[in-house]
Design brief:
This protein has 582 residues and is of the alpha/beta class. It has 21 helices and 19 strands. Helix 15 packs across helix 17.
């Protein structure tokens, strides 16, 4: 296996001269492609690989261990060249990060279709995946890496914020003031945790074995301070909590070691969770007892031993979370499949004795079609995002929590790469569209307003809208988004496939389907989309359809599973659910 991993890494090749010249997304109003839809694809691909955004862009790794934007640098160059030549009635096909075909379609069709990491069920596991990866036949696309939708930690922040806000409403007095949250992992996904805690008024202690990641989060404003000594960190955290102050500290320590040390000191945080890359025991998670350099060396020398030691550490990690829960902490898994790893590989039947974050806090929002809706300013001008901030507040004056989020994001979330914003919008079809009389969803109303602002010149260049895969209707992930479904349909993967097909039919500009994501190969299937708002009537038609069908999938998926909130949303918003209608 070690030789296979080395071959896969070597197969990426030398960083592209084109990438070195770009060093992030092109910006401004001049384009090098045949149209803005192709230009948007080129820019979001390069934004994924911006050194401000990606974890290891020279290796094409965006985040999550080995989540790549392209299979190799040769494939990257070919994708860029194809996008430049692609006309307005052609579609480019990308198979696990490699362009494999270009066909004439039509103007409403996607300009790019992407499939990443997908394997037939019997062979759908890490071992076979790594064999194919070593041959250069496949790559790991994570979730938003391979679909060119990653925007750095700024894209994760609101999902984490919303989860903690719901926890605070359920468990405390509506915020986390005076509460201490202990967690692990400050990489591309977990790096949002300290800021999400402080935005909710709480105190965060975050373990991270890679000191450079702590430094990066401090530089970008996501974490306040760093500590090498846990006792020092605990003292600072207690002092801040007692004073009711928001505070965060990154501790340079292995997460399992930190939680065990807390138990030894009889220190029980109010909340305990984790966002280490536990989905991948070889490339993502670090075993206890090693520095980063020592662990990297062990991975190359003896990957089998590395894997076993990682799993041993994960078992200790989960045991510590369970013990902290027993002593009074509120515990939840934040979607990295650490419970599944320990149950599968260490036979721990109690691993799932603490819940995942979706069934614990997020599913009611999914039932309403709500989820992380994100957009990027292709101009590169922050003023364009600030104008969209104004627009979303103008459209939804009654949504106090949305206004609070936008204000907090403007104050505390630094842009990375292309300026971008995230907010949670859903279905909730209420307002009539004066242009055709149809009712519009929240997402469609907002997208159409942005399109108008682009057309009117209030926004200087097109906006591209996408979303996270933490989504209501585009994911089948039994240890995360679809954990503990009411009707037991956790593992049914028809839903993300239907979501991708429907987004194609509705006119999305990029559509992607992936296996794996944040929980690992064989554990999830998920789909994503992009729509380019360039001020044209075509963009308006696409937006009206995609931003109805996409959140609508969340409503019908959960209505089909028997959730009362989803059935109510379907009735209130006139979503057709055939069997219920009869």
């Amino acid at each position: 296996m070690g030789d296979q991993r080395q071959q896969a890494s070597a197969g990426v090749g030398t960083p592209s001269d084109q990438w070195r010249e770009y060093r992030g997304a092109p910006t401004g109003t001049d384009i090098e492609c045949e149209g803005w839809r192709q230009e948007a694809a080129l820019r979001v691909l390069n934004n994924n690989l911006d050194p401000e955004v990606a974890e290891k862009p020279e290796d094409l790794v965006v985040y999550g261990g080995t989540g790549r934007a392209a299979r190799s640098w040769d494939a990257y160059d070919a994708i860029v060249d194809e996008l430049r030549e692609l006309d307005d009635e052609e579609t480019l096909l990308v198979q696990s990060g490699k362009p494999v075909g270009r066909f004439r379609t039509h103007g409403m069709a996607p300009r790019v279709l992407i499939a990443n990491s997908n394997l037939v069920g019997k062979w759908d596991g890490w071992e076979h995946f790594h064999e194919l990866e070593a041959k250069g036949l496949i790559m790991y696309g994570q979730m938003t890496a391979g679909s060119w939708a990653y925007i750095g930690t700024q894209g994760i922040i609101q999902g984490t914020y919303e989860t903690l806000a719901e926890l605070a409403r359920d468990e405390y007095d509506g915020d986390l003031q005076g509460r201490i949250v202990a967690t692990g992992g400050l990489g591309g996904m977990g790096g949002a945790q300290p800021l999400a805690v402080t935005m909710n008024g709480g105190v965060c202690i975050a373990a991270e074995v890679d000191e450079s990641r702590i430094d990066r989060r401090i530089e970008t404003g996501y974490c306040m301070e760093k500590a090498d000594d846990l006792d020092d960190a605990l003292s600072r955290a207690r002092e801040a909590a007692e004073a009711g102050e928001a505070y965060s500290v990154g501790v340079h320590v292995n997460a399992a070691d930190m939680l065990e040390a807390m138990l030894e000191r009889d220190f029980v945080p109010d909340v305990v969770t984790d966002q280490t890359s536990a989905h991948d025991e070889l490339e993502g998670y670090y075993p206890s007892g090693y520095t980063v350099a020592e662990a990297d060396d062990l991975r190359e020398r003896d990957p089998d031993r590395y894997r076993e030691e990682s799993l041993d550490t994960m078992e200790r990690h989960v045991d510590a979370i369970l013990e902290l829960q027993e002593r009074g902490a509120t515990a939840f898994e934040y979607g990295n499949n650490i419970r599944g790893q320990v149950k599968e590989h260490r036979g721990a039947d109690d691993a799932f004795d603490y819940p995942g974050f979706v069934p614990a806090y997020i599913r009611p929002q999914f039932c309403r079609g709500r989820g992380p809706f994100r957009w990027m300013a292709l101009s590169g001008d922050p003023a364009d995002i600030h104008r969209t901030d104004e627009a979303v507040k103008e459209l939804f004056p009654e949504k106090e929590s949305l206004h609070r989020w936008i204000d907090l994001a403007q104050e505390q979330v630094e842009f990375q790469g292309l300026p971008a914003r995230v907010c949670w919008l859903g279905y909730q079809s209420e307002a009539a569209d004066e242009r055709d009389g149809d009712a519009l969803t929240e997402r469609a109303r907002f997208a159409l307003r942005i399109n108008d602002l682009v057309r009117e010149g209030e926004i200087s260049a097109p906006i591209v809208v996408t979303r996270d895969h933490l989504d209501a209707g585009s994911v089948a992930s039994p240890n995360r988004e679809t954990e503990a479904m009411k009707d037991g349909s956790d593992a049914i993967a028809d839903w993300p496939i239907l979501n991708a097909l429907l987004n194609c039919a509705a006119g999305a500009d990029i559509v992607a389907v992936h296996d794996g994501g944040g929980v690992g190969i064989g554990n999830a299937l998920h789909a994503n989309n992009h729509v380019v708002l360039d001020g044209t009537d075509l963009a308006a038609r696409k937006a009206r359809r995609v931003f109805t069908t996409d959140p609508g999938m969340g409503v019908i998926r959960h209505a089909d599973a028997g959730y009362d909130e989803a059935e109510q949303e379907a009735r209130e918003s006139n979503v057709a659910v055939p069997m219920d209608d009869r």
